[in-house]
């Protein structure tokens, strides 16, 4: 194995002498590592790998060989059967090429590396933080959402294992989404301190998983007290003076300054003939099949580079680009085979700011500085190429992806110009940036739209709720109630394909609404507090509230207000569509998964009846996870009232009047119920809804919220007492409501549970939207049913009192349109 030393001097001695840093461990450590100083307030020193191909130019066969050898050791550890079930995960930006090489050595498993480049239209499958890094946020963006969803071993690859924080953060994030029982951590060097060494074992025991560690060498870095301050002082002393941008602290700066006024340097562009559809790396996943395709075309692509090199070129530097390490490395490795007479070196550009000192005992001798040229998501900034200046290369081959082939790359102070100051020949080759699904589905939009918000859509304030819906306000969707009922029951149309005509309440009915609100505001506020505190205690300390539009939306807003009132939390809140028999809006789930951790999502609804939506959501989430490979969504709904005993998270199980059930859009932000119709909602669209702006004069949406929220302070003690009791109770759903509905359906000759709507809220919906047959009311039910009796009287619907009804009331939809119905008495045969 080659040792990277300068004139017999260890490339860490400069830092070691000045900071008192000691490198203890295997004899091979000084050959593998040098030391430099970070321009980073979080950590003073930088372990500089001599065999990684990032900061220190190295023979590509040495760089690739180390990764291959590690991968073969992992395969030997796992065995072929487990290796076929494994996934390899590398870290951006430094270890993307190493992880790829490990995956090649393992041979049987797909590979994915984290990225700091968001890609429109690609949902996040996870993310984590690297606390000591200059740029900390990592994204996981696999094209195949199922890539990380398996249960086989996960192989995590980094260049160094120093504190273990990055690995622990990764495993913690992924284990919550995709639990598995075996993790393998791979690194060139294990440099953990004794204090950190036991953390991995303890964490494995906590998870109940096996964890193995595979490295080339191990040791520790001994740091004296005050090392961070000393390091920062040295950086300040030796850093490049202002105005010397473009070079290192010595001979490159003057040429960099003068070049700005000189002619634009020329370079040669080399077309590799890159195969269509072959990923340029593993930002979105790289399978063994991709690897086989690349191996087949590598010789021809490297030959094109070799033929473009100037005659007599003996020192050739192949320079990769930040996360794009593997493709340039393989091209360099193949070029080394084709040109045994030449000295081929490989390294890549980087985001990491490191001090350059021209001393044989320092790992970073020179530094080229140039502007970022790939329009990074975190904005413009400097980028760096280390140890390229002054290397005496006859030619530099810069390899970038097409996202980075921008005017900034070709600018007078761009990377190509910087390189041209230090070599007579610059070659540029551009690899097409792989965009998942672009070739297969060009009609798919780049990304899903952001949520609609008031006042443009709904009468709620913009921060109260974001609607993951499309606005269909300009489409005529309303149909007479009897026509809708006939179409729905005959199977000619689904209830979500049209809208009922919005009920316009009489003055008497509006008085009933306000009277009911006055009477029940404290009761509702208590239920809001109880369900919110239960969610915070059991589901997530910072939940993402996702209401099932539209009945769930006022409840979600109230829960958000409670969290703000009681805990100062500003919780995200969205409304999504779920349709019985059609499932939840999968595009809304995709948006949520891309912007939030699915494990934090809490679905919210107003109440349960017989539990049909509860079952619908469970099935829909399961189907979504199988199709998308995105796990973590908990399908259990949090509701204000659970009279059907269908869920564990609720404010109360009493069946009482929730005034928001008394009205339609005018208590729900002026939004219609949701619409799902094939001619209006495409496969990549959100479900639709209408904003009834014309009903603003009758809108009581905000008044309802304010009336309930005004009672939050007075119910605080009651909420605390009830939450304490609930958290200690057995809240296992009994599904009593479903059993009662089945019994009523048979007893009344309906034979269709979808035509039986239990509870005050569902009964009110029957009277407002459907064709009711009769209302069953619990004997002795009082003011909670005043509005039901009024609506029933207006529509000529009989109210029948029943002694042992498990709900306060039950609405029966008229079954006269059901196939086999016998007539107006509503009796129907089973179908």
TrEMBL record:
<keyword id="KW-0808">Transferase</keyword>
<feature type="domain" description="Cysteine protease StiP N-terminal">
    <location>
        <begin position="458"/>
        <end position="708"/>
    </location>
</feature>
<dbReference type="InterPro" id="IPR029057">
    <property type="entry name" value="PRTase-like"/>
</dbReference>
<dbReference type="GO" id="GO:0016757">
    <property type="term" value="F:glycosyltransferase activity"/>
</dbReference>
<dbReference type="Pfam" id="PF11202">
    <property type="entry name" value="StiP"/>
</dbReference>
<dbReference type="InterPro" id="IPR022537">
    <property type="entry name" value="TRSP_dom"/>
</dbReference>
<feature type="domain" description="TRSP">
    <location>
        <begin position="280"/>
        <end position="417"/>
    </location>
</feature>
<keyword id="KW-0328">Glycosyltransferase</keyword>
<dbReference type="Pfam" id="PF15608">
    <property type="entry name" value="PELOTA_1"/>
</dbReference>
<dbReference type="InterPro" id="IPR011215">
    <property type="entry name" value="StiP_N"/>
</dbReference>
<feature type="domain" description="Orotate phosphoribosyltransferase-like">
    <location>
        <begin position="32"/>
        <end position="219"/>
    </location>
</feature>
<dbReference type="Pfam" id="PF15609">
    <property type="entry name" value="PRTase_2"/>
</dbReference>
<feature type="domain" description="PELOTA RNA-binding">
    <location>
        <begin position="735"/>
        <end position="814"/>
    </location>
</feature>
<dbReference type="InterPro" id="IPR041688">
    <property type="entry name" value="PRTase_2"/>
</dbReference>
<dbReference type="InterPro" id="IPR000836">
    <property type="entry name" value="PRTase_dom"/>
</dbReference>
<dbReference type="InterPro" id="IPR028157">
    <property type="entry name" value="PELOTA_dom"/>
</dbReference>
<dbReference type="Pfam" id="PF12500">
    <property type="entry name" value="TRSP"/>
</dbReference>
<protein>
    <submittedName>
        <fullName>Phosphoribosyltransferase</fullName>
    </submittedName>
</protein>
């Amino acid at each position: 194995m080659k040792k990277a030393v300068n004139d017999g001097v260890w490339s860490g001695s400069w830092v070691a002498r000045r900071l008192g840093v000691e490198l203890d461990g295997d004899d091979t450590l000084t050959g593998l590592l040098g030391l430099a100083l970070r321009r980073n307030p979080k950590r003073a020193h930088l372990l500089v790998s001599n065999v990684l191909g990032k900061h220190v130019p190295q023979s590509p066969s040495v760089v690739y060989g180390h990764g291959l050898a590690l991968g073969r050791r992992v395969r030997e550890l796992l065995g072929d059967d487990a290796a076929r079930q494994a996934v390899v995960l590398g870290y951006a930006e430094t270890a993307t090429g190493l992880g790829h090489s490990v995956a090649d050595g393992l041979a049987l498993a797909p590979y994915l590396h984290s990225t700091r480049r968001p890609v429109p239209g690609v949902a996040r499958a996870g993310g984590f933080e690297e606390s000591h890094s200059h740029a900390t946020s990592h994204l996981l963006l696999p094209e195949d959402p199922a890539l990380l969803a398996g249960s086989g071993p996960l192989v995590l690859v980094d260049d160094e294992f120093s504190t273990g924080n990055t690995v622990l953060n990764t495993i913690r994030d992924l284990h919550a989404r995709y639990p598995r029982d075996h993790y393998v951590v791979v690194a060139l060097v294990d440099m953990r301190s004794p204090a950190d060494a036991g953390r991995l074992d303890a964490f494995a025991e906590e998870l109940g998983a096996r964890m193995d560690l595979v490295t080339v060498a191990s040791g520790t870095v001994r740091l004296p007290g005050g090392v961070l301050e000393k390091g920062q002082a040295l950086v300040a002393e030796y850093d490049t003076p202002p105005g010397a941008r473009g070079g290192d602290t010595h001979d490159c700066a003057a040429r960099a300054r003068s070049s700005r006024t000189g002619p634009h340097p020329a370079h040669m562009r080399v077309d590799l003939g890159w195969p269509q559809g072959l990923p340029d790396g593993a930002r979105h996943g790289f399978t063994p099949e991709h690897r086989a395709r690349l191996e087949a075309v590598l010789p021809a692509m490297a030959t094109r580079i070799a033929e473009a090199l100037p005659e007599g070129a003996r020192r050739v530097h192949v320079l990769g680009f930040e996360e794009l390490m593997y493709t340039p490395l393989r091209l360099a490795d193949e070029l080394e085979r084709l040109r045994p007479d030449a000295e081929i070196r490989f390294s890549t550009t980087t985001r990491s700011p490191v001090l350059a000192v021209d001393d044989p005992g320092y790992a970073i001798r020179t530094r080229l500085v140039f502007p970022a040229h790939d329009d990074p998501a975190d904005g413009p900034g400097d980028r760096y190429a280390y140890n390229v200046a002054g290397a005496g290369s006859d030619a530099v081959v810069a390899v970038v992806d097409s996202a980075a082939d921008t005017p900034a790359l070709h600018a007078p102070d761009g990377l190509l110009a910087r390189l041209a100051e230090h070599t007579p020949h610059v070659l540029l080759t551009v690899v097409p940036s792989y965009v998942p699904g672009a070739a297969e589905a060009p009609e798919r939009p780049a990304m899903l739209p952001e949520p609609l918000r008031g006042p443009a859509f709904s009468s709620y304030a913009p921060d109260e709720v974001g609607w993951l819906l499309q606005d269909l306000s300009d489409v005529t969707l309303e149909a007479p109630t009897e026509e809708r009922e006939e179409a729905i029951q005959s199977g000619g149309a689904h209830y979500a394909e049209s809208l009922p005509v919005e009920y316009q309440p009489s003055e008497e009915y509006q008085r009933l609404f306000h009277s009911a609100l006055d009477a029940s505001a404290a009761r509702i506020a208590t239920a809001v507090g109880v369900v919110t505190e239960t969610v915070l205690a059991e589901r997530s300390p910072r939940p993402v509230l996702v209401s099932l539009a539209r009945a769930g939306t006022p409840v979600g807003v109230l829960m958000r207000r409670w969290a703000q009132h009681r805990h100062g939390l500003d919780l995200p809140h969205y409304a999504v569509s779920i349709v019985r028999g059609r499932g939840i809006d999968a595009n809304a789930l995709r948006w949520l998964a891309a912007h939030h951790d699915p494990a934090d999502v809490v679905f919210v609804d107003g109440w349960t009846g017989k539990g049909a939506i509860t079952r619908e959501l469970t099935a829909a989430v399961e189907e979504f996870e199988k199709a998308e490979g995105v796990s973590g969504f908990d399908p259990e709904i949090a509701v204000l009232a659970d009279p059907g005993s269908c869920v564990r998270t609720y404010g109360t199980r009493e069946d009482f009047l929730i005034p928001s059930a008394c009205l339609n859009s005018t208590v729900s932000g002026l939004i219609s119920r949701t619409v799902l119709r094939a001619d209006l909602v495409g496969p990549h669209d959100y479900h639709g809804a209408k904003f009834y702006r014309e009903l603003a004069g009758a809108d009581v949406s905000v008044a309802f919220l304010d009336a309930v929220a005004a009672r939050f302070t007075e119910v605080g003690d009651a909420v605390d007492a009830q939450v304490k009791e609930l958290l200690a109770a057995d809240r296992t759903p009994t599904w009593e409501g479903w059993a009662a509905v089945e019994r009523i359906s048979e007893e009344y000759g309906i034979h269709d549970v979808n035509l039986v709507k239990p509870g005050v809220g569902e009964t009110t919906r029957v009277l407002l939207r459907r064709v009711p047959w009769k209302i069953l009311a619990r004997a002795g039910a009082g003011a909670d049913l005043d509005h039901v009796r009024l609506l029933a009287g207006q529509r000529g619907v009989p109210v029948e009192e029943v002694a042992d009804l498990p709900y306060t009331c039950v609405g029966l939809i008229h079954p006269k349109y059901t196939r086999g119905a016998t007539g107006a008495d509503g009796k129907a045969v089973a179908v």
